[in-house]
Amino acid sequence: MPIRQTHMNHTAQNGAITLLVGLMLLMASSILTLGVVRLGIMEQRMANNELRAKEAHQAAQAGLEFARSQPLPRAGEETNTFPQPSLIEASGDYRYQVLVRHDHIESCTRVRAHAQALDQDGIAHPNISAVVSECQEPASLLRTGFAGGAPPLVVNGCLGRITGNPRIHPNRCDEEQTHEANPVCQPIALVSSQGMTCLETGHLDLNEGVVVAEGFSGSAWDYLFALDQASMRALADIPDSGVHWITARTSWRGATGSPEQPVILIFDQAAGCPKFLGNTTLYGIIYYAEPSECDNQGWGAVTVHGSVILEGSLGALNANTELRHWSLLSHAGPLARAGSRLSRPGSWRDWD
Q1: How far is it, in rounded angstroms, from Cα 125 to Cα 116?
Q2: pTM above 0.85, yes or no
Q3: Which UniProt keywords apply (predicted)?
């Protein structure tokens, strides 16, 4: 009996040890499983946070890009009424509201875009937002050298069949127009891409102005404008920008501008070379993209304070036409700030 009792005691001890080891292994595996699950949840949260942070940053960056498409406000101008970007849809149930603010500091306009995440109920998430800012400067509509005004007439072709005595009044080269960027001022009346043998100025009253033959190569657009045509057409879509992109093939009865609100009229090739009806006075720039129709089309009684730009030859100019040099960008109005914006290098940041 003692021997059998001892055997049973050893068996019971072995069973208890096995049970204890099993419980310890089960506990360890449970702890390991919980750790793995917790780690997975943390990694998922980190991934979600990183995704939200990227979305918020991209939304704020989109705010800066939106601001670049708008006219740059002048110093002292109220900016609370400036357009704001639309809500930006994101992954999940979030959207981003972007608020753009303009602050005039020193020599630039600092544009600050703040993106805030909103849930499906429109409630702001306290931990999902981003701020980016940069200094923005206006990009000129015209190329360097035309700040004081473009020549009254630019022709990417020939000039001929002038009747009567149409008049061109060039710039007068006063002290204001003679500066470091333009040390030698010339009273330029006409610039052409062709040689003098192609320019019949006989009846044209140049008022002692200079004719510049072979003054440029390529297009008249690239000679004058600093913006490409797509950017200029985008400006025309902004209300009250002063830029009008015309495709209708009819005599022009629209905006003619004023000294305070000059205009740029872009006649697309589809519009041809329309006339101006009646005694029209226009302030700004007229551009004709059609390369051939203006060769046999007088404009009628029109006075242009600014410039007429043609992508082809000009003919049949009559006595009722008068072109006067005038700097549209030096005057007040939307065109003084309607060009696209440029970001100042080194001014971008994503912290307050």
Answers
A1: 7
A2: no
A3: Membrane, Transmembrane, Transmembrane helix
Do 323 and 168 touch, CB atoms closer than 8 A? yes
Tracing tokens 């600014």 back to the chain, one arrives at: 306
Residue count (the chain): 352
Nearest Cα residue to 69 out of 314, 339, 294, 320: 339
Smallest CA-to-CA distance from 331 within 235, 232, 260 is with: 260
**pLDDT, tens digit, 9 for 90 and up, residues 49-96:** 888 889 899 999 999 888 877 777 766 666 666 788 888 888 777 899
Which is it for strands 188-192 and 280-288: parallel, antiparallel or unpaired? unpaired
Q: Are 314 and 157 in contact (CB under 8 A)?
A: yes
As to burial, measured by CB atoms within 10 angstroms (0-12 exposed, 13-18 middle, 19+ buried), residue 20 is exposed
In angstroms, rounded to a whole number, what is the distance separating the alpha carbons of residues 274 and 293?
9
Residue with tokens 């033959």: 213
Rounded to whole angstroms, what are the CA distances from 276 to 43, 259, 297?
A: 69, 19, 11
